[in-house]
Amino acid sequence: MLSVRSFFRLWLPPLLWMGLIFWFSAQSQLPGLTVTWLDWLLKHSGHFGGYAILALLWWRITVRSFQDRYVAAALAFAGALLYAISDEIHQSFVPGRDASWIDLIIDGLGAMSAMGVVLGRKHPGKRQVEATHSATMIDFP
Q: Can you say how many angstroms the Cα of residue 5 is from the centroid of all Cα atoms in its chain?
């Protein structure tokens, strides 16, 4: 059963983050820079980082629910990507905005990169076993 504490600790952060993404998407026009390439870079960095954070927030939930870290990462990535798809659909209905495949790809790359980082880190249990193993090894000449 989901306790109030676990809801606030685990579920509220990704829901609030998705609300923030939705709010940005609902704006008819976002402020921009006069330098076109810099504006493009800043906005797309926001897409990449925003969906990396969303995937990490989903990871916090999925890794507690599934023993297999790869399954947890796949589900966290899928959750972020599905929200990115729904966000692009939402933008297509906002006056002055449109859906963009480039944005969707960048969103997916951000989420995928975040999951690559968490999977690339050594599993805490694995680190402990390696430390124990190396402490018991004796080097002979």
A: 22
CA distance linking residue 109 with residue 44, whole number of Å: 11
What single letter denotes the amino acid at residue 8? F
Length of the chain: 141
Report pTM.
0.82
Location of structure tokens 């109030």: 4
Give the whole-angstrom CA distance, residue 102 versus residue 79: 19
Interatomic CA distance for residues 76 and 93, integer angstroms: 26
| C-alpha span between 120 and 14 (Å, rounded) | 22
pLDDT at 125: 56
Mean pLDDT per block of 10 residues along the chain (141 residues) reads: 82 96 90 77 92 98 93 98 97 92 96 97 58 41 40
Residue 103 to residue 122: CA distance in whole angstroms: 31
CA dihedral for 28, 77, 128, 67, sign (positive or negative)? positive
